[in-house]
Amino acid sequence: MTHLAFMLFDDFYGIGLWMFLSIGAVSLFVVFIPTVHFLDSRRKEREAFYKAETLRRITESSSDGAKAAAELLRDEARREAIKMREGLKIGGLICIGVGVGLIIFLRVLLGSGGVPNGGAGSAYLCGLIPGFIGVAMLIYVFFMAGPIE
């Protein structure tokens, strides 16, 4: 693949490869990503249409159908709330892991003296920032968020 890039954009200073990579990046952001977004939005629109059509037919069928449709909507809202909370839990744990890893990495990198050239001796404590963000996310999920209905 590289020889193709050099054959298409050949010159003596290596600009050919950079031209090839630049055109690839532009085509990614101009063509591929908008196409994927368009197709994803069409899929979501189709799913919403089919769901609404199914609920309409259930509610028109009988009074028991209306109860079933309402129960279906409640179950879906409950599943979405559970999914959101599980995402917050995973995000909080990842933030705590990143913070601990950053503390360990900076502590080993800088040694026991901290920042070289007379700086503050506790630069590794910047790992507490993502750690505290993770703790805040977990506190919200477990203590502050209301019950799932």
What does the secondary structure layout of this molecule look like, with pairings?
Blueprint: H1 2-8, H2 15-61, H3 63-110, H4 128-144
Number of helices: 4
The helix/strand series, from N terminus to C terminus, equals HHHH
Number of domains: 2
Tell me the major beta sheet: none
Q: Would you report the number of β strands?
A: 0
Report the span from N to C terminus: 55 Å
Structural class: mainly alpha
* Integer-rounded radius of gyration: 27 Å
Average pLDDT, rounded to a whole number, is 82
Shape verdict: flat
As a percent range, the share of helical residues equals over 70%
Weakly predicted, low-confidence segments? none
Strand content: under 5%
Identify the notable features of this structure and list them briefly.
4 helices; flat; 80% helix; mainly alpha; single chain; 149 residues; 2 domains; 0% strand
Protein described:
This protein is mostly helical and 149 residues long. It folds into two domains: 1-61, no CATH class; 78-149. 80% of the residues lie in helices and 0% in strands. The chain contains four helices and no strands. It has helices at residues 2-8, 15-61, 63-110, 128-144. Helix 1 crosses helix 2, helix 2 (15-61) packs antiparallel against helix 3 (63-110) and helix 3 packs antiparallel against helix 4 (128-144). It is flat.
